[in-house]
């Protein structure tokens, strides 16, 4: 255990006293009457007390040193439970475990009492959380800015196999022990109204926004504890409160948000997280959330800047603002508005600052996820911002005219304003024009951003487009979630790897070592047992840990192709029953996924998998060879149990559509072998682990594009491949829905008559072949052991520490500051 960081200051008796004090005074329980939950809350509060002190001290030292910092603006931070993770970062895990034992408690049980703060949808939100962890671990000054949703991502259950959504009150009745409210940091945010012209004292004609109403922003800080150091950075979440109710009938969309949570309370802008991943719903309340988030965050950044004694002219020297996708884009016209209307800078002076402050990360190429807001909506809610956007576009169009004189087609294509029935503002275009750096999230994705999404922008602004390959924090995704493997790794290569993940390569020399192989496989087996116990307790399904645990855990989306996985399962079912010579090693197919509440086909796929699971899990003809488990309510804390137990990692998106993926990295790190397409970061995982240690299949990006261009004909595959035909046709029977044929046929319909937009049928045969290879190689346990060890050993590149260093060196230009 580490002796640096905060460990040496730990006083066990004092800590126990603090826990008991909080139990009584904060949660009104005596040690005799307290249940496990109250004890967890008291322990959380006692720890938060320590980290809040460090947070203030970090804030103070950074302000005194007046150093450059990054502000990470994101509508989502999917942080997961904090207690266990912060204990590891503080270096207090063992100490606190011992302390609570003396109170008659078990730390592992206490940690299970914490609800996941689910303030994000999936990859994008989880990435923001890993990045905050890595910024703090490496002491690159940073503030995370997000929203304090009252309800996080809905919790999921199944009724008759169908997804049912329920609100996620993550703070419970008592509040979340790790958060601290900062009333002194409150902000007032304007909305609606009009713009007026006036003449100032110097005789200059000026424009200013006169909002029709205001709402209040309340700051809540969560501590991001630096691993093995004394830095604690704030994740600052804004809660919207309204001084008086106002009529929001005009904002009631009558959809999920309205239906689930009732009439949105007046002014309650931060009531609920929008549950879409990779899809833009274009709702008015969502734009209001985005502006509220940006207005509070920009005002807070400027407050810090001035409090440290700086001039507005030095903003770009001291602050960088990273936009996590286009969701916080409205921060750009907001800063311009403040610089021009409030600080009285001319356009050029304001632009010189603003365009050197903002940088933008693109997370997807999917057209349905690229945000566009109608001009009239923006003009109504934020009239001054709309003027500024028009001015940015006007000047940009002049630039385009200079570069491509008289070319109206290029102007139409690049314009921030899309012409049409109703004019729309293209937020990605606004970002590329107004930032000093744009990046994709994996090498392949960044190439496609350059080649397909923004080719002309790349010509106009050479050097602006970058790649920063995503990463994951090894603290949560190995050290915390996989203590068995951690111990084994510590024994072989020492204990520095959680901060220097490249050191894992030191394990490679043990890949052929029989003794090490045995121990590595034993750890995997233990982790499979831990998960199997969870499934037994929570779902009543018995799993055999000798089976291959084959895992697909991610949001439910057609482009991620859970239905390709399902078709493969159906093919195995068909062969087990119809091919007398067919044999397979026992397999458990594990799914976990939430579908956006309005995404009908995604919900159909969940239903189908659940129905197939019901049947195969109880069909004696299959001899226990095939099990399917759809684990409900996928969330960070569930990923922490599933990932260490995985043998196979399904990363099977249509090539070109998964920008990066990050689950792929977590699974490989924990020794799962990837079956995947040449998409996103899979390409780089293959580069690192070598072609022998990954199962690649399917069409390449350019083959996908070509096939789409030439017209993909799903029936050609259907007629040519009898196994595919048999598998698809099972969906038209009542095999899995006894007495109700047709209940699963929407999926088959979509693939055959819907044109198979994600080329599931085109990749099916190659996918089946790759799975046969997995089956054969798993049976040879020495081969498998070598490959799984090499996966852990060779994925050090995918630490989010490395991603953050890439941002720091190529985009943010920060210096680390060690807090004393
Ligand atoms: C999201 O999770 C991702 C992209 C989005 O584009 C939106 C959301 Cl909510 C607007 C994911 C990508 O799908 C995934 O490939 C990537 O690994 C992740 O962001 C983090 O970059």
Which CATH first-tier class of the largest domain would you pick?
Answer: Alpha Beta
Number of helices: 32
The dominant shape is globular
**How far is the first residue's CA from the last residue's CA?**
21 Å
Classified in CATH, the superfamily of the largest domain is: Glycogen Phosphorylase B
Q: What bound compounds does this protein have?
A: ligand Z2T
Number of domains: 3
Number of E strands: 22
Strand content: 5-15%
Query: Averaged pLDDT, please?
Result: 96
The CATH topology of the largest domain corresponds to: Rossmann fold
What does this structure look like?
This is Alpha-1,4 glucan phosphorylase. One of its GO terms (biological process) is glycogen catabolic process. The protein has three domains: 1-65 and 82-114, no CATH class; 68-79 and 116-373 and 424-470 and 804-812, Rossmann fold; 541-784, Glycogen Phosphorylase B (Rossmann fold, 3-Layer(aba) Sandwich), CATH 3.40.50. The chain is globular, with a radius of gyration of 27 Å. The model is unreliable at 1-7 and 247-264 (pLDDT under 50). The relative contact order is 0.10. It contains 32 helices and 22 strands. Strands 5-8-9-2-1-10-11-15-16 form a nine-stranded mixed sheet, with helices on both faces. The chain is α/β, with parallel strands linked by helices and 820 residues long. It binds ligand Z2T. Ligand Z2T binds at residues 121-124, 127, 277-278, 325, 363-364, 369, 441, 470, 658-662, 680.
Report a brief summary of the structure.
This is Alpha-1,4 glucan phosphorylase. The chain has 820 residues and is an alpha/beta fold.
């Amino acid at each position: 255990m580490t002796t640096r960081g905060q460990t040496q200051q730990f006083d066990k008796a004092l800590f126990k006293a603090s826990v008991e004090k909080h139990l009584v005074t904060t949660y009104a329980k005596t040690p005799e009457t307290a249940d496990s939950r109250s004890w967890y809350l008291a322990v959380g509060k006692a720890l938060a007390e320590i980290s809040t002190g460090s947070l203030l001290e970090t804030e103070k030292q950074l302000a005194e040193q007046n150093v450059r910092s990054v502000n990470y603006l994101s509508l989502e931070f999917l942080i997961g439970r904090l207690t266990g993770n912060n204990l590891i970062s503080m270096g207090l895990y063992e100490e606190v475990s011992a302390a609570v034992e003396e109170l008659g408690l078990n730390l592992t049980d206490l940690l299970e009492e914490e609800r996941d703060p689910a303030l994000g949808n999936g990859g994008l939100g989880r990435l923001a959380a890993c990045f905050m962890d890595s910024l703090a671990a490496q002491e690159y000054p940073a503030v995370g800015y997000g929203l304090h949703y009252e309800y996080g991502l809905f919790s999921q259950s199944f009724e008759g196999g169908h997804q049912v959504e329920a609100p996620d009150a993550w703070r419970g009745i008592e509040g979340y022990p790790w958060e601290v409210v900062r009333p002194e940091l409150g902000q007032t945010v304007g909305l609606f109204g009009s713009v007026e012209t006036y003449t100032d004292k110097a005789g200059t004609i000026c424009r200013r926004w006169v909002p029709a109403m205001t709402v209040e922003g309340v700051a809540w800080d969560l501590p991001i504890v630096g691993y093995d150091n004394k830095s604690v950075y704030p994740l600052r979440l804004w809660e919207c409160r309204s001084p008086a109710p106002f009529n929001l009938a005009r904002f009631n969309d009558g959809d999920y948000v309205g239906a689930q949570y009732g009439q949105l309370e007046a002014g309650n802008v931060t009531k609920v997280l929008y549950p879409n991943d990779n899809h833009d719903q274009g709702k008015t309340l969502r734009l209001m959330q985005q502006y509220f988030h940006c207005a509070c965050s920009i005002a807070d950044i400027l407050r810090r800047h001035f409090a440290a004694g700086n001039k507005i002219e030095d903003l770009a020297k001291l602050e960088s603002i990273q936009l996590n996708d286009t969701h916080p884009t409205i921060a750009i016209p907001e800063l311009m508005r403040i610089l021009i209307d409030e600080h009285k800078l001319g356009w050029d002076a304001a632009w010189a600052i603003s365009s050197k402050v903002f940088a933008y990360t693109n997370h997807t190429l999917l057209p349905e996820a690229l945000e566009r807001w109608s001009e009239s909506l923006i003009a109504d809610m934020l009239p001054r911002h709309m003027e500024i956007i028009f001015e940015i576009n006007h000047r940009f169009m002049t630039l385009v005219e200079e570069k491509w004189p008289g070319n109206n087609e290029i102007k139409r294509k690049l314009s921030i304003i899309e012409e049409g029935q109703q004019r729309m503002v293209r937020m990605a275009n606004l970002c590329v024009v107004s930032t000093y750096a744009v990046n994709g999230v994996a090498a392949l994705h960044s190439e496609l951003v350059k080649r397909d999404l923004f080719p002309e922008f790349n010509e106009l602004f050479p050097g602006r487009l970058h790649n920063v390959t995503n990463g994951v924090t090894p603290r949560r995704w190995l050290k915390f979630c996989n203590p068995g493997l951690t111990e084994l790794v510590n024994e072989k290569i020492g204990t520095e790897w959680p901060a220097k993940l490249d050191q894992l390569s030191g394990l490679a020399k043990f890949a052929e070592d029989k003794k090490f192989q045995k121990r590595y496989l034993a750890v995997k087996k233990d982790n499979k047992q831990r998960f199997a116990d969870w499934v037994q307790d929570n779902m009543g399904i018995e799993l055999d840990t000798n089976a291959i645990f084959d895992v697909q855990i991610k949001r439910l989306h057609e482009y991620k192709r859970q239905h390709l996985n399902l078709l493969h399962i159906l093919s195995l079912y068909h062969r087990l029953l119809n091919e007398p010579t067919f044999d397979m090693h026992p397999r458990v197919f594990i799914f976990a996924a939430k579908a956006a509440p309005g995404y009908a086909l995604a919900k159909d796929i969940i239903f189908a998998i659940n129905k197939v699971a019901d049947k195969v899990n109880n069909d004696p003809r299959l001899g226990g060879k095939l099990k399917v488990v759809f684990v409900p309510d996928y969330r960070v804390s569930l990923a922490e149990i599933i990932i260490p137990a995985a043998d196979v990692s399904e990363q099977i998106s249509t090539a070109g559509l998964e920008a990066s993926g990050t689950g792929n990295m977590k699974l490989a790190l924990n020794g799962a072998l990837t079956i995947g397409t040449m998409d996103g970061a899979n390409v780089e995982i293959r580069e690192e682990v070598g072609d022998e240690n990954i199962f690649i299949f399917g069409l390449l990006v350019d083959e996908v594009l070509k096939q789409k261009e030439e017209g993909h004909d799903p029936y050609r595959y259907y007629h040519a491949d009898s196994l595919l035909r048999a598998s698809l046709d099972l969906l038209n029977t009542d095999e899995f829905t006894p007495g109700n044929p047709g209940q699963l046929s929407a999926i088959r319909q979509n693939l055959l008559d819907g044109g198979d937009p994600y080329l599931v049928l085109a990749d099916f045969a190659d996918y089946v072949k790759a799975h046969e290879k997995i089956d054969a190689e798993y049976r040879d346990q020495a081969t498998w052991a070598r490959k799984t060890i090499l996966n852990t050993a060779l994925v050090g590149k995918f630490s989010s520490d490395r991603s953050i260093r890439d941002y720091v060196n190529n985009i943010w230009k920060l210096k680390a500051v060690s807090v004393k």
